[in-house]
Amino acid sequence: MDAPLELLSESVHDIEGRVRLEAIVACSAILSPRSMQVAVEATDHPVDQWIDYALKQTIHRLLPVWLPAFKQGESQFTKPAHLAFILNEIKDRDAVSSLRSMVDAGALNKAANRNAIISILANGDPKDFYQYGIHPDRHMRNKQYDSVSHAVILEALAQILETNPAALPEKNLQVLKDLALHTDKRIGIPALKLIGLAGFKDASGIVVEIATREDYDPELRVAALRAMGDLDTAGNRNKLIDLARKGCKAHASLAGHHVPCEIRFTLRCRSCSRLSGKRNNLGIIRLKHPGLVDS
């Protein structure tokens, strides 16, 4: 067949998802950098789980032909979002530098930009964590703070650091304290997680305030309690035990899905054995009101 990629470049834009899927699979069989450029154009249309799977398989199958060309500047993609989709999948360190350039240039739409930043964080260092993940300035679009995207990125960073712990420089402390007090709990919750993961003991005052203020959102307060456990200071341990012993309904409401009137705060504490409580098989301490039987 003459010029099969010309025909496939039309098929990847077909109105029928099944046709787009078959076009992607066909591209994977043509070992050319152009095949990758054509296949990824399918992301201009709705991507279901089958198309997503086929695209990712195609990315890896064609990797030996398109990645060297890309690194030499010979592979051109129609849209930055196309390249971002590919680089998000392969997580190649050299390629990730291209993601940084695209994010810095503001060349991506909101969704592609968010995914690109998450890939940068997954392959990055503490400097990237601060610049692309934590600091709010990175999440301004059209001079407006995009709290929704920032919340997703902060949560992703927390998951990354839970899996691959890394030290956060002190300059992150004040920014995270400010984010923990943000009016949007979707920002506050991951910020509290990061404070705990980073071991920023100087943030204990704010963390305790959030955990003990009954006018704060319960989910936010639970996140603060967990951060208190992670920070593991003597003051935090005593405060947690004191809260557990009070047994009031206001505190019990923090974990409404547990037995009523029982205060059971789940704490991912690095030194949980020092707390009075019972450890389950996930390493979680459940502090209980004295005299109540664990269920």
Give an account of the 3D structure.
By secondary structure, this protein is mainly α. The chain folds into 2 domains: 1-78, Leucine-rich Repeat Variant (Alpha Horseshoe), CATH 1.25.10; 167-295, no CATH class. 60% of the residues lie in helices and 4% in strands. It contains 16 helices and 5 strands. It has helices spanning 4-11, 17-28, 33-40, 49-61, 63-71, 80-90, 93-105, 110-122, 126-134, 147-163, 172-180, 185-198, 204-212, 218-231, 234-246, 249-252; strands spanning 140-141, 144-145, 265-267, 278-279, 285-287. Strands 3-5-4 form a 3-stranded antiparallel β-sheet. Strand 1 and strand 2 form a beta hairpin. Helix 1 (4-11) packs antiparallel against helix 2 (17-28), helix 6 (80-90) packs antiparallel against helix 7 (93-105) and helix 8 (110-122) packs parallel to helix 10. The longest helix has 17 residues, at 147-163. It is elongated, with a radius of gyration of 24 Å. Mean pLDDT is 81; it is low at 255-295.
**Main β-sheet, spatial strand arrangement:** 3-5-4
Summed up, the domain count is 2
Given the C-alpha coordinates, what overall shape results?
elongated
List SSEs in N-to-C order. Answer: HHHHHHHHHEEHHHHHHHEEE
- Helix count equals 16
Uncertain regions spanning at least 5 consecutive residues: 255-295
Please give the radius of gyration in angstroms: 24 Å
Distance between the termini: 69 Å
Biggest sheet record: 3 strands, antiparallel
Rounded mean pLDDT is: 81
Helix content: 55-70%
Structural class, from helix and strand content? mainly alpha
| Number of DSSP strand runs | 5
Strand content: under 5%
